[in-house]
Amino acid sequence: MLRLAAATASDIGRREGLDLGDLSPYQRRDRRARRSRGGKPTVLQAVTRFATMGLRIPRERALAHAQRWAASPITEPDEALEWISLLGLGGLDGALRLRRKGVTPAMEKTRRESEEQARRDARAAQDRVWAEIAARYRPGIAAQLRLNGCTPDMLDRLINGKTADQLLREGRPVQIVINALRDTHG
Questions:
Q1: pTM over 0.90
Q2: Which candidate in 34, 36, 45, 145 could, as Cys together with 41 as Cys, close a disulfide (CB 3.0–4.6 Å)?
Q3: Nearest-angstrom CA–CA distance, 87 and 103
Q4: How far apart are CA 49 and CA 66, in angstroms?
Q5: Hey, what's the torsion of the CAs at 83, 88, 92, 94, to 10 degrees?
Q6: What is the DSSP string of 142-181?
């Protein structure tokens, strides 16, 4: 016995004269929109998306900034986003100035990181100096000196024939020494 193949939905629809619409295989639809494979976002799209989603600014303001970035000589969306992450959304002029000097976003990032590291190192060195000073005197004296704007080199200044360091070691009141330092400093 010859067995007939089961009719597909499209065969039945054709035979009955029905329009069944798109019968392509079912594809799950994500909530997120998918980008087409070949299309890379433009600077305008990338900056607008970053500003609205990442920085959470209103779409109108984001679009105004994005239009400025899109009108600039920066044509790569990734480069624009790197400059924005370094200089901020309003940093287009700075980005163009650095770009004219041949600076890339990676070079600028490295420069900024090394500056930050130098600041941290200087702060750590200053903290070590103040820790040594704190060990010389009664508790709280070094903190009081530091809060009043005194620097370690100010402790070597002469006040009535003695250094500020000597006066503090002798137990003179800190505020009197601070006031005397201000008088000799100003």
A1: no
A2: 45
A3: 13
A4: 9
A5: -80
A6: HHHHHHTT--GGGGGSEETTEEHHHHHHTT--HHHHHHHH
- What length is written for the chain? 186
CA angle (101, 106, 107) in 5-degree steps: 45
Does 140 or 11 have the greater pLDDT score?
A: 140
- 162 strand-pairing partners: 159
CA 69/CA 48 separation, integer angstroms: 10
H runs (alpha helix) in the chain = 9-16, 43-49, 59-70, 77-87, 92-100, 105-136, 141-147, 164-169, 174-185
Residue 166, both tokens: 């000597």
| 113-136 pLDDT per residue, tens | 999 999 999 999 988 988 888 888
> Does residue 90 contact residue 71 with C-beta atoms inside 8 Å?
no
